[in-house]
Write a structure and sequence with these properties.
Radius of gyration: 28 Å
Distance between the termini: 19 Å
Order of helices and strands: EEHEEHHHE
Helix content: 40-55%
Number of domains: 1
Number of strands: 5
Length: 201
């Protein structure tokens, strides 16, 4: 699922848009032209917006690496006839991996990508919070798995004298736990689609 709320970089531009003049009768006057200084102000504002939006999305992509998709832009046509990017979005894969440690690493990258621009948007902040939540869940899964194997190891070392159990039993517990964690990850991934959250300008 690709989601995201695009905000735009057009603040202050609407008042700079000059319309056609209106004659005393109320009809459009074709001879009336927008003032050239207003047009120039609008073009400069659009140029700044375009640069800002592209830098913002490039920061998401560069930091997101393999988890970031291509940027999409919303354009506004200026009075000079050129299109300027005034909003943008980069989809980022926020789905957990099968292995908790891999999920932790991935969510650290996702959060870094969301917060990479100098001015993260509210949607960027939400993606960062989602990454933190997924990372915390993966850390909990990792602690649960390690406490299960750690407990078995401690019981074996305190529970008997040398020679009471075959040595392979001590090494079998971590292997069984690893297989169990892998099976759990595979089962939890069945039917699950990658989740995407758009990080926007």
């Amino acid at each position: 699922m690709i989601s995201g709320v695009s905000s735009n970089a057009l603040s202050g531009l609407s008042r700079l848009r000059a319309g056609r003049g209106v004659s005393a009768s109320g009809a459009a006057d074709p001879s009336a032209q927008p003032a050239s200084d207003q047009q120039q102000q609008q073009i400069q504002a659009l140029q700044r917006a375009d640069t800002s939006v592209r830098q913002h999305e490039a920061a998401h992509q560069a930091t997101g690496g393999p988890y970031a998709g291509g940027a999409s832009f919303t354009y506004t046509r200026g009075p000079d006839g050129k299109n300027y990017a005034t909003a943008g979005e980069v989809p980022v894969d926020t789905s957990p991996e099968r292995d908790p440690q891999a999920t932790i690493r991935k969510m650290e990258t996702v959060k870094a990508a969301a917060l990479a621009p100098a001015d993260p948007s509210p949607q960027d902040m939400r993606v960062a919070q989602q990454a933190d939540a997924a990372k915390a869940q993966a850390q909990q899964e990792q602690r649960s798995a390690s406490s299960g194997t750690g407990g078995a190891g401690e019981g074996t070392s305190r529970g008997g004298t040398p020679g009471e159990r075959p040595p392979e039993n001590g090494s079998a517990a971590p292997a069984l736990a690893a297989r169990g964690a892998a099976a759990y990850g595979a089962a939890s991934a069945i039917g699950r689609r990658p989740a995407y959250a758009g990080i926007t300008v």
